[in-house]
Write a structure and sequence with these properties.
The complex is a heterodimer of chains A (474) and B (280). Chain A has 19 helices and three strands. In chain A, helix 4 (69-113) crosses helix 11. The longest helix of chain A is centred in the N-terminal third of the chain and has 45 residues, at 69-113. In chain A, strands 2-3 form a two-stranded antiparallel sheet. The relative contact order of chain A is 0.11. Chain A is mostly helical and 474 residues long. Chain B has a seven-stranded mixed β-sheet, with helices on both faces. Helix content of chain B is 46%, strand content 16%. The radius of gyration of chain B is 18 Å and the shape is globular. Chain B has 280 residues and is of the alpha/beta class. Chain B has 13 helices and eight strands. Mean pLDDT of chain B is 78; it is low at 1-22 and 268-280. Classes of the chains: A mainly alpha (474), B alpha/beta (280). Chains A and B meet through helix 1, helix 2, strand 1, helix 3 and helix 5 of A and helix 5, strand 7, helix 7, helix 9 and helix 10 of B.
């Protein structure tokens, strides 16, 4: 709009002149403001008794103590997971009964009644509907329990205490203490965690926080962990203890993720992103009584349903693709079988299988659909009549899922453990990758953040597999 | 001084009007088109800005009890009387010195976004530290309302805060609230409306400069700035930023962005410039 203006140039030149003449006056200004703030506060605030403060102080002394801080953190996370795992079982079964049993059968009858061609029924009911229904019954109950519990802790004011506890460890790892906050955000959603790294001033430490955020299990991966742990770890112990055993397994993976965050942060700050941790100012807010009803509302409506909707939107096309791939026959088998067979040797080498690898490719847009995709692929490829009506009608609980995976897919305990580890260490979902690129504006760091976890995942599962094979455990 | 009589009205005005339907608060949510006024929401981290935002807009933006939750700008809308207000929730910051990205977002919006009203949400239980930011905001804009939030916690802590005296010292309206309980929100809305419509004389607290060289340099630059940009509401602050070699500000002057903003604002509102003279 405005052209080069001599008056503007003159003004800027004079400002520059004053700058050189007077020197740095900013500190004095800020000091002046602080003095005024102190004076005004002194005028208007009268301190009476303060009973509540001592309660907060006592609680802080316990929750952030060197002895109790860490055990309490782990115990609280364990408690949240245990309530989620044991609480989600029954509603998951009911939902599966309804969606995969009753509604599925009813849809087939409906399509038969209007004499729809077999491929329309297959595409819509066995593909799109089935994938969507599976995502809902696998994901909805655990999320509807996990999110509110987590939000209650957040509302209470516990997260800054977590940051306070972890600060020492992050400082040793050469990372910023606020990374504890962004890491915790990542437990909800890694894309949100990556955006939250904006609170970190230093670009070096921010990059470390971005790259390691993926090691926080996100809500797309919690259900996978919980389901696989229930099937493979929970089955190792008597039924009464299976909830606890599954909880401990998931807790172990989550804690491993946090440990990896520290380790990778440390590695990065010693190699690619050298530097010292900067100090910062963390405010411990007062504890506030959580507002239970409002928390339930916001976490169910805003978080659970939004995340679920995202999963459904991704699952529907994935179901369509899956059904199509497993119903177009080339040569002696369908396309999905060809791909799975081609991936199987690689899968075997790293202790997974072709179905899991293909599922992870299809699930790049959303980790939520890994388990439903694995189940559908196993059924469609694994010998039973692919895509024929009625195949999955019997599916209802974790036990049936186990029958599908073990019986048809040939999974072992090793496959289960490896899948849990690979779910922790693999590429971020496409939303997160895009967010990383937007936040870093760097192709290089986006690639590092994407590839590094996959390499770590493959290395880990391969090592475990070959050690297990060498020891003849499988 | 005639304007001053006018300014005594605002604070109680909300409850008085609560009975007249036309002035009722109507929460519009995220549709921010057709706003008459833009209102910025600034404040330290974890003072309940997002809760105030939700209380005003009816949105249920997730709030969290930890500092730094809001790192991006959230927008929402509410109606009050016959006017529509667009509310922008800025990231919580301890200062506006623009050392990190969130501070820059907040400062740039208050200055270049030219909100009609900037609401500074302060934590009543940590008033001194929170006033640091409030005073920095007042250096930039005089169209401000201080929302003295978390009054319930202050009461629990046995703190007694003289909000009328605070308003006198700051030179802008102060509204005590407990946003989590919805307490004081109607008063806040009424006050925002008064400041937006320039029904409030503004003589905000400004830092007394002590260094005589600095005083002379600032008044020299500020008077030129005032001539070049008639209606510039914060010439002194702009002069200080220029003398501090603030790259963003130097760029805004050089590129003409500042000129465009001032022109746009005086064209759109007419009012503020005139009132500035009246209250000076």
């Amino acid at each position: 709009m405005s052209e080069q203006n001599p008056a503007v140039d003159d003004l800027l030149k004079r400002a520059q002149g004053y700058h050189e003449q007077i020197g740095d006056f900013n500190d004095a200004l800020v000091e002046g403001l602080y003095e005024d703030a102190a004076r005004i506060a002194d005028h208007v605030v009268a301190q009476g008794t303060h009973a509540r403060k001592t309660f907060d102080e006592t609680l802080d002394r316990i929750l952030t103590s060197r002895t109790w801080g860490f055990p309490i953190m782990i115990a609280l996370l364990g408690l949240v997971l245990w309530v989620t795992i044991t609480g989600a079982n029954v509603p998951s079964g009911l939902l599966a009964d309804l969606l995969l049993g009753v509604v599925y059968t009813w849809l087939h009858q409906l399509f038969a009644a209007i004499s729809a061609p077999w491929w329309i029924t297959g595409f819509l009911v066995d593909g799109v509907y089935m994938a969507t229904a599976w995502v809902i019954s696998v994901m909805l109950p655990p999320m509807a329990i996990f999110f509110p519990l987590f939000t209650l802790l957040e509302d209470f004011g516990y997260l800054p205490r977590v940051a306070f506890n972890l600060d020492r460890v992050f400082a040793k790892a050469g990372a910023h203490g606020k990374q504890a906050l962004t890491m915790t955000m990542g437990f909800g959603c890694n894309a949100a965690g990556v955006i939250a790294t904006r609170v970190i001033d230093s670009p070096r430490e921010r990059l470390i926080a971005i790259i390691t955020n993926n090691f926080s299990l996100c809500n797309g991966r919690w259900p996978t962990q919980i389901l696989i742990a229930t099937i493979f770890i929970g089955a190792l112990v008597p039924p009464a203890l299976s909830g606890t055993a599954s909880m401990l397994a998931v807790l172990g993976v989550a804690v491993l993720g946090v440990t990896l965050s520290f380790g990778v942060s440390w590695g990065l700050s010693k190699t690619l992103l050298k530097g010292e941790a900067s100090s910062f100012y963390l405010e411990l807010p007062p504890y506030r009584p959580p507002r239970i009803l409002q928390t339930l509302y916001t976490s169910v409506i805003d978080r659970t349903l939004i995340v679920l909707w995202r999963a459904v939107v991704m699952a529907a096309p994935a179901g369509a693709i899956l059904w199509t791939l497993s119903n177009i026959t080339v040569g002696d088998a369908n396309i999905a079988a060809h791909v799975v067979n081609a991936l199987d040797p690689i899968g075997w080498f790293i202790g997974l299988n072709g179905v899991i690898l293909l599922a992870y490719v299809l699930a790049i847009p959303a980790n939520e659909i890994v388990i439903p995709t694995v189940l559908m692929l196993t059924l469609m490829v694994g010998g039973t009549a692919a895509g024929q009506p009625g195949v999955m009608v019997e599916f209802d609980t974790a036990r049936q899922t186990a029958e599908v995976l073990v019986g048809i897919g040939g999974w072992t305990l090793l496959t289960g453990i490896n899948l849990m580890l690979f779910s922790l260490m693999h590429n971020p979902c496409s939303t997160t990758i895009l967010t990383i690129y937007q936040e870093t504006k760097s192709l290089k760091w986006t690639v590092v953040a994407t590839v590094l976890p996959i390499l770590m995942g493959i290395a880990t599962t391969t090592a475990i597999t070959w050690i297990a094979r060498a020891l003849r455990l499988v | 001084m005639t304007v001053n009589e006018h300014t005594q009205i605002p604070l109680s005005h909300g409850s008085a009007c609560a009975t007249c339907p036309a002035a009722h608060l109507q929460r519009v949510g995220i549709d921010t088109s057709n706003a008459d006024y833009v209102v910025a929401l600034a404040g330290n981290p974890n003072t309940g800005k997002s809760t105030v935002f939700n209380a005003l807009t009816g949105l249920r933006q997730h709030t969290g009890n930890w500092p730094g939750k809001t790192v991006t700008r959230m927008e929402g809308m509410f109606r009050y009387g016959d006017k529509a207000y667009k509310l922008v929730d800025l990231p919580g910051t301890y200062s506006l010195l623009a050392t990190s990205e969130d501070e820059e977002v907040a400062r740039d919006f208050i200055l270049f976004g030219q909100p009609h009203v900037t609401v500074v949400v302060v934590d009543a239980t940590r008033l001194e530290r929170n006033l640091n930011l409030a005073l920095q905001v007042l250096e930039i804009t005089d169209r401000a309302v201080v929302c003295l939030n978390l009054m319930d916690e202050a009461r629990r802590h046995g703190l007694d805060i003289d909000h009328r005296r605070l308003a006198r010292e700051l030179g802008v309206p102060v509204v005590p609230t407990a946003a989590r309980q919805g307490e004081g929100i109607m008063d806040l809305v009424a006050t925002i409306a008064d400041v937006a419509a320039s029904r409030y004389a503004r003589h905000p607290h400004r830092l007394l400069l002590k260094d005589p060289h600095l005083v002379r340099a600032v008044s020299d630059l500020a008077s030129d700035l005032q001539k070049m940009y008639p209606g510039l509401p914060n010439a002194r602050w702009v002069a200080l930023r220029l003398m501090d070699n603030d790259p963003r500000m130097v760029e805004a002057v050089r590129s003409g962005e500042l000129a465009d903003l001032i022109a746009a604002q005086s064209g759109q509102m007419g009012g503020p410039g005139a009132l500035e003279l009246a209250s000076a």
